[in-house]
UniProtKB/TrEMBL annotation:
Top-level taxonomy: Eukaryota, Metazoa, Ecdysozoa, Arthropoda, Hexapoda
UniProt keyword annotation of Coiled coil present: no
Protein name: Protein YIF1
InterPro entries noted in UniProt: Yif1_fam
Annotated family: Belongs to the YIF1 family.
Gene: LOC107219458
Region described as Disordered: 1-30
Keywords attached to this entry: Endoplasmic reticulum, Golgi apparatus, Membrane, Protein transport, Transmembrane, Transmembrane helix, Transport
Chief location category: endoplasmic reticulum
Segments passing through the bilayer: 182-201, 213-235, 247-265, 271-292, 313-331
One of the record's GO cellular component terms: endoplasmic reticulum membrane
Topological category with respect to the lipid bilayer: Multi-pass membrane protein
Localisation per UniProt entry: Endoplasmic reticulum membrane; Golgi apparatus membrane
Gene Ontology process terms (BP): endoplasmic reticulum to Golgi vesicle-mediated transport; protein transport
The keyword Transmembrane is annotated on this UniProt entry: yes
Organism: Neodiprion lecontei
Length: 340
């Protein structure tokens, strides 16, 4: 509170009715009366306070603009962030793993473990699939395939139908033309599907579903035929040297005649089809009779009786005569619409 000491004391000094007026709200300067003319003003100093905004006691302080929002450009002296460099620096490759794999002891252990694993898998596979036996039936070459196809079409000129053995095991087909194989039946079966699709295409009856139907039906008939022959051998109690794959190979040769008959039917239609089918049926039956005879009724075997030989002969004739029927059944519907 300020008192005027310039003159003599004349009466009591005047007090402000509310001393807190100058502290609670900033003083507003009057446009007519300047701030220096107010005689009753507290001469207080501004004390900075950290608890809140400082009060304004009549001073016009220029307000600074707030900082702009958003990202600011990095200074030129700062380095930019590279995630690849950070990843390489944070996660360096372990050098001990490469050194461990390079050790000869670890390498030998890995090779031995892999060999043991492959060997156990092969044993499990051979329990269900005769891999070793299949190798024998696919051991063929080009000379064997050509000579065997000639034998199928012209078996009447062949005289020696015996199969040569070496150390109680038959020679591989590449060395023995009379030995059965699975290469020609397999390729003939796949060719049958292609030729059947070609025949249907020339008749404008081809659909992609037809190929699946033909393949599945031919496979089903082949399995049924093999089951019938196997059950017949078991019921008749005939001891032969025929194996299941041997029967499958002999029964698969009919697809060679089916393919040739279908190809001839494209230019010559039904006449060419039946001519080829009839000729190959005779030649295939002759081939099967001569080939199966030495496998079912070996020459000079004294333990076979006359009645037993008769049953064996019936079985051979049954296998030989059912082949032309199946050939006609699997291929006749492929040329029927071309004549109609």
């Amino acid at each position: 509170m300020n008192y005027n000491h310039s003159g003599a004391r004349r009466g009591k000094p005047k007090r402000m009715l509310d001393p807190s007026v100058g502290l609670s709200s900033p003083a507003v300067a009057s446009p007519t009366l300047p701030m220096a003319q107010s005689p009753y003003m507290y001469n207080q100093q501004q004390i900075p306070s950290s608890n809140g905004p400082q009060p304004d006691y009549g001073f016009n302080v220029a307000e600074q603009p707030p900082p702009p929002y958003g990202f600011t450009a990095a200074p030129s002296h700062q380095q930019t962030y590279n995630p690849n460099e950070m990843r390489q620096e944070s996660f360096p490759g372990p050098p001990y793993a490469t050194q461990l794999l390079a050790e000869p002891i670890v390498t030998n252990m890995a090779v031995q473990y892999g060999s043991a694993l492959v060997g156990s898998g092969k044993q499990q596979l051979e329990k269900y699939v005769p891999v070793t036996a299949l190798k024998y039936y696919f051991a063929v070459d080009t000379d064997y395939v050509i000579s065997k196809l000639v034998l199928l079409f012209f078996p009447f000129t062949h005289s020696d139908w015996s199969i040569k053995y070496e150390q109680d095991s038959p020679l591989q087909p590449r060395y023995e033309r009379n030995a059965p194989d699975m290469y020609i039946p397999t390729m003939a079966y796949l060719t049958y599907i292609v030729v059947a699709g070609l025949a249907l295409g020339t008749q404008e009856r081809f659909t992609p579903e037809q190929l699946g139907i033909l393949a599945s039906s031919a496979l089903a008939w082949g399995i049924m035929e093999l089951l019938v022959h196997t059950i017949t051998l078991y019921v008749m109690n005939m001891d032969t040297s025929l194996k299941t794959l041997d029967l499958l190979a002999y029964c698969g040769y009919k697809y060679v005649g089916i393919n040739f008959a279908l190809l001839v039917s494209l230019p010559f239609q039904r006449f060419g089809y039946y001519v080829v089918l009839a000729y190959f049926s005779v030649s295939l039956a002759f081939f099967l009779v001569r080939s199966l005879k030495l496998r079912v009724i070996p020459e000079g075997h004294s333990s076979y009786s006359a009645s037993g030989n008769k049953r064996r002969l019936y079985f051979i004739l049954f296998v030989a005569t059912i082949q032309p029927v199946l050939m006609w059944w699997l291929s006749s519907h492929l040329v029927a619409s071309a004549i109609a």
